[in-house]
TrEMBL record, chain B:
Pfam families: POP1_C, POP1_N, POPLD
Gene this chain is encoded by: POP1
Record localization: Nucleus
GO cellular component: nucleolar ribonuclease P complex; ribonuclease MRP complex
Protein name (Swiss-Prot/TrEMBL): POP1 homolog, ribonuclease P/MRP subunit
This protein's UniProt keywords: Nucleus, tRNA processing
Annotated stretches, region: Disordered: 1-64, 146-168
Record GO biological process: tRNA 5'-leader removal
């Protein structure tokens, strides 16, 4: 297909203190990352990345971030992410890239698996019974009941 | 994003997860953290704001609420600070919700594509889109659902009837009826709709202007040939009653000062059509209703008199209640007229649409084709609003008021050759030879009508009609002449091709007789016509042979192309020809645009229309009518009557229209009227203008005017002195009340005063120009006392003036009319090429305000999302529109460097005069103030400035009576 091809970077942000989450916003993130690129790769880097650079998705509750960049220069962005230590002014943070995909869809699929995995990993480390039940509940609620068959068909379709 | 694009985008993003962040607006609440449950309440709120979709992908409402309940007891420190630890439950909840959202996004394929389109290339098969069995079995269910959906949509779109069925004659007529339920159609509607831009106005569908380019062609037709207009939408009211009672009742609506009334001798005999402006009962000079034309039925022995009042439909809602009160008419009489029972006809159509839709072959077999045809013809009757009663009767005075709207059609022919068109198209009815065929059904009225008196009359009318051919232009006949006539079916004498009728010079009648006719005019007997009789009209309408029948008979004729002789079946149509006067005032092109009006009984519209068109008449619409009145120099209703209720309504609508058009352009692509110093470019503030001039006059009064000057009155004014004093007192009373009503101003229509002002407007030493002004009025220097008196008596009066520009430029509507400075006139004297002074650019103080407002709006919307911005922009102009003055207008007269005295109503480059011409309204006080200060040889010079221009241009002002 003739189209502009992009890379989507699925990242996870972690803050040193929980206060850091308070001011995270798509716009601020966008600005912070561009500034970081400027620092790391200069004007050239900014110009390369800024063309279709966008924050496509941000979830502050799980710290998941989805970035879009042109396919040709995504490495510049990728390498920059490691150098981001602060968002805004005070809060120390780190961004780790967990997946690089060609479409949002693949990133979403990866994210589903990733989250499930994390939940399952947490399960044995539960300390109290209440926590355990809550976790189990959460794991069980991960599937959409009403969309069951669609999910199945879609997953099959993708496998083709 | 808007419209289809927005909808498509929304559909696409329906299942996509949206970003989830904390609320940052108010720090007090947001200090709580997500990892403990205290923020749950607030999270929910946030979700609602961010996600406009119906089903939230995250479904936090279920998962978080549950969590919130159980965790609330644990950390009660909601807003004190953040907990030091993370609970596994929150962690799990957040992940689970995200997984759920992602699952939904992933599982729903792109909604714009079909199932088989999502398959990889190697699995695609031929005919997959229509044949479900081609699709892999696991996807079949979804594909089937999709296919059904598509087929359903298709079905909804298609019409339930085929085109052929829809275009079948009967169905088509029913459809036409449905379409004219709201706005009535004229009989020539279909003809017009194919050739004109149609507008819906005053409850009718009217042709606005032709689709072809014909501005000049129509003008040429008006000056050299003939322009045809369908004026059937004009309303006609019939008043029947004793002559004295009628005159007594109607006198309350008129005033002798404005000119001839209903009782004018020439009109009362029925020889002429009169026109006048009506006022609300005994309210003169305030609250005018509007202009009407009227026609008396010629007098016979001891009959009740019959009067037709023709007026514009915009006037109807004001005039009819007034007439009812004046005539003391009570409740409506329900169907007192022996109509051809439109109701029953309608019922037949409604009950059985079957016979209407029968094909042509079966109809002929029926044996009674005529019946059905009349049914079809009257099908439009149904659409006429039955709620409004058509007839009112007065118990005390015996006057019967009847609404004849659309009962009689009116066509207007404008131009010097309109008579030759008429004489080619109409043939006076051949006499009824076979008297014994009276019992025959068709055309029953004609043989009965053919007694000796009437035959004699018919012959005279016929001779007169022939005589009229000898007249070069209709302007030679005295204005308003009425001629009755009975003519043959015009369809029988239709030429094969469209021809251009020219006067036949070889067949000119006797010159002596023609001269006699032009000098003496038409005698009153010849203006009688059976069209006045309701029964005859109905009979004529009913007995019309259908087009289809006529064509069949034409086909069966032995010699093709010869004239069809229908014998007794042929209908004779009574018509009335009414002369319309052309340009009466002014110096150049006197008599321009004169012509004839034809009144035809209903049902015959298309027959006459085609026959006139085939004689070379060019059809015009509303715009052409407007141009005609402009070139003619007359006021057009309702555009030029801002003091009437209908005129006010019109100007309100016009303002809305113009404002909408103005707002459609971005501020940089439209004139900034504030900078141009145009305070009111869309709606002339007459009320304010008049009030301001009243104030100016008062101030000057206080400064001291020699008292003795007031005594000096010109001769025509002295008679009305007593009355005018009374007016003055009344005015004072009104001022005491201090309540400016709906329309506290009026247009001056007092003929004596107008004549005086008109005489003053003319320059006294103008190189022999305009020598024929009425000698009885003093053309010398204006006695200042008289001028003061007139303006004092008419403090809130406007006067119609014509402006003709001296040099370049064409004025547009809402242009300002200003008083020139003495310096301007000196410049003009010194330099003949001097176009006029320029207005310095004004400053737009509102620009800043608008900018500030915009900024505030932006600042107040913290999310600054696209949607909020869009709303802000659209809300803004409700208060301030960039480039327009907001509502409390500044002083109009002194806003610009030159003092404003009035506004232009309509203006254009006049092809008749060869310069820009305009019709404007100026304040009487302002006009007299200006005239009294100007030197005698440069009298009547004003400045005109278009609202979107800074250039003033010189114009000569004329008051025409």
């Amino acid at each position: 297909m003739v189209r502009f091809k992009s890379r989507y970077l699925l990242c996870e942000i972690s803050f040193a203190s929980p206060n850091g989450w308070q001011h995270v916003e798509e716009k601020k993130l966008h600005r912070a990352i561009l500034e970081a690129i400027q620092k790391a790769h200069g004007d050239f880097g900014v110009a390369c990345c800024a063309v279709s650079f966008a924050v496509k998705y941000l979830n502050t509750y799980t710290g998941i971030l989805l970035l879009r960049c042109r396919k040709a220069h995504y490495r510049l962005l990728w390498s920059t992410l490691a150098f981001i230590h602060q968002l805004g002014k005070k809060e120390t943070c780190a961004i780790t890239c967990i997946h690089v995909g060609g479409t949002i869809r693949t990133c979403q699929k990866f994210l589903i698996g990733y989250n499930r995995q994390q939940l399952l990993r947490k399960l044995p480390t539960c300390k109290s019974e209440a926590e355990r039940t809550a976790l189990q509940e959460a794991v069980r609620s991960c599937t959409l009941q009403e969309l069951q068959e669609d999910v199945v068909s879609a997953s099959e379709e993708d496998s083709n | 994003m808007s419209g289809a694009k927005g909808r498509k985008y929304e559909k696409k993003m329906k299942h996509q997860p949206t970003s989830v962040t904390f609320h940052t607006g108010d720090p007090g609440v947001s200090s709580s953290k997500n990892y403990n449950g205290a923020g749950a309440q607030q999270q929910e709120r946030k979700y609602g704001g961010i996600q406009p979709q119906r089903d939230q992908p995250w479904t936090p409402s279920s998962s978080f609420k549950h969590y919130h309940e159980q965790s609330h007891y644990r950390d009660g420190q909601t807003s004190q600070g953040f907990p030091k630890y993370i609970t596994a439950t929150t962690f799990a909840q957040a992940r689970a919700a995200e997984v759920k959202a992602m699952l939904k996004a992933v599982s729903n394929k792109n909604s714009n594509s079909q199932v088989f389109q999502a398959l990889p290339k190697h699995m695609r098969r031929r005919a997959m889109s229509s044949n479900v069995k081609r699709i892999p079995r696991r996807l079949r269910a979804i594909a089937k659902r999709e296919l059904e959906k598509a087929s359903q949509q298709k079905k909804e779109q298609s019409k339930n009837k085929s085109r052929k069925a829809r275009r079948r004659h009967g169905n088509l007529l029913l459809e036409f009826n449905r379409r004219q339920r709201k706005n009535l159609w004229l009989e020539t509607h279909i003809w017009h709709a194919k050739r004109f831009h149609m507008v819906k106005k005053w409850g009718y569908c009217l042709g606005d202007k032709p689709t072809s380019k014909c501005y000049r062609a129509c003008y040429r037709a008006m000056t050299k040939h003939c322009l045809l207009q369908d004026l059937s939408y004009y309303c006609c009211l019939e008043l029947t009653g004793g002559e004295n009672e009628l005159l007594k009742a109607l006198a309350r609506l008129t005033n002798r000062e404005t000119g001839l009334t209903f009782a004018a001798v020439g009109c009362l005999s029925g020889k002429k059509q009169g026109s006048l402006v009506l006022y609300k009962a005994e309210k003169y000079p305030l609250e005018p209703l509007g202009p009407v034309t009227f026609l008396w039925k010629p007098k016979k022995m001891s009959e009740d008199r019959q009067l037709w009042i023709w007026f514009h439909p915009a006037l109807k809602q004001d005039l009819i209640p007034q007439l009812k009160t004046v005539c003391q008419c009570g409740e409506p009489v329900v169907q007192s007229i022996p109509l051809p029972e439109p109701s029953t006809v309608v019922s037949t159509v409604e009950e059985m649409p079957e016979p209407v839709s029968v094909g042509s072959k079966r109809k002929r077999k029926d044996g009674t084709p005529l019946e059905e045809i009349t049914v079809k013809k009257f099908i439009r009757e149904k659409t006429s609003p039955t709620l409004i009663p058509a007839c009112w009767k007065s118990q005390t005075t015996g006057i019967v008021l009847r609404d004849l709207t659309l009962e009689i059609l009116r066509y207007r022919l404008i131009g010097p050759l309109s008579h030759s068109v008429l004489s080619d198209a109409l043939y006076p009815a051949s006499l009824c030879k076979i008297f014994h065929s009276q019992h025959e059904k068709h055309c029953s009225w004609w043989p009965e009508y053919c007694n000796e008196d009437n035959l004699f009359l018919h012959e005279r009318q016929q001779n007169l009609f022939q005589l009229l051919r000898g007249i070069a232009s209709p302007a030679e006949i005295s204005a308003g002449t009425v001629l009755g006539l009975v003519v043959d079916d015009p369809r029988l004498t239709l030429p094969r091709k469209r021809t251009k009728s020219m006067p036949n010079l070889s067949m000119l009648p006797d010159f002596e007789k023609v001269r006699q006719l032009t000098v003496e005019g038409i005698t009153d007997e010849t203006s009688a016509s059976p069209i006045w009789d309701q029964a005859v009209r109905d009979d004529v309408t009913r007995s019309k042979i259908s087009e289809q029948e006529l064509n069949r008979m034409k086909m069966e004729i032995l010699v093709p192309g010869s004239r069809l002789d229908l014998g007794a079946k042929e209908s004779k149509i009574p018509i009335l020809l009414i002369h319309q006067s052309g340009k009466l005032t002014g110096q150049e092109c006197l008599g321009w645009g004169s012509g004839w009006d034809i009144l035809i009984p209903k049902g015959w519209g298309m027959a006459f229309w085609i026959s006139l068109i085939y004689r070379g008449a060019r059809a015009g619409g509303l715009q052409e009518g407007l141009k005609h009145s402009q070139h003619k120099g007359t006021a057009h209703f309702p555009d030029d009557f801002p003091d009437c209720a209908a005129g006010m309504r019109f100007s309100g609508e016009q303002k809305k229209e113009l404002l909408d058009k103005y707002k459609r352009r971005p501020p940089s692509k439209r004139p900034n009227y504030i900078k141009h110093g145009s305070v009111a470019p869309f709606l002339c503030p007459w009320q304010q203008l008049v009030e301001e001039w009243e104030m100016i006059l008062k101030i000057e009064d206080e400064r001291g005017v020699p008292e003795e000057c007031r005594g000096a009155l010109p001769a025509p004014e002295s008679s009305g002195e007593q009355m005018s004093k009374g007016v003055k007192v009344k005015c004072a009373d009104e001022e005491m009340k201090g309540s400016p009503g709906a329309a506290d101003f009026s247009i001056l229509r007092n003929r004596t005063v107008l004549k005086q002002i008109s005489a003053w407007c003319l320059p006294t030493s103008g190189k022999g120009k305009r020598a024929n002004c009425p000698a009885s009025f003093s053309r010398q220097q204006i006695p200042s006392g008289a001028a003061l008196l007139i303006s004092a008596h008419n403090p809130r009066c406007l006067v119609w003036t014509r402006l003709s520009l001296l040099k370049k430029g064409s004025p547009t509507s809402h242009a300002l009319i200003c008083i020139p400075d003495p310096g301007d006139i000196q410049m003009l004297c010194a330099d003949l090429t001097f176009c006029g002074p320029q207005e310095p650019k004004h400053k737009d103080h509102f620009k800043k305000k608008i900018k500030e407002l915009k900024k505030k709006k932006l600042a107040s919307s913290p999310g600054a999302s696209c949607k909020v911005q869009g709303i802000g922009c659209s809300e803004l102009p409700s208060k301030l529109i960039s480039g327009l003055w907001p509502e409390p207008l500044p002083s109009i007269t002194s806003h610009c460097t030159r003092v404003t005295i009035g506004f232009v109503l309509r203006g254009d480059f006049s092809l008749t005069a060869g310069c820009g011409e305009a019709l404007g309204l100026v304040s009487v006080a302002g006009l007299l103030h200006m005239l009294s200060q100007q030197s005698s040889d440069r009298k009547g010079l004003v400045l005109v400035r278009n609202p979107a221009s800074l250039q003033y241009r010189f114009a000569r002002i004329m008051v025409e009576v």
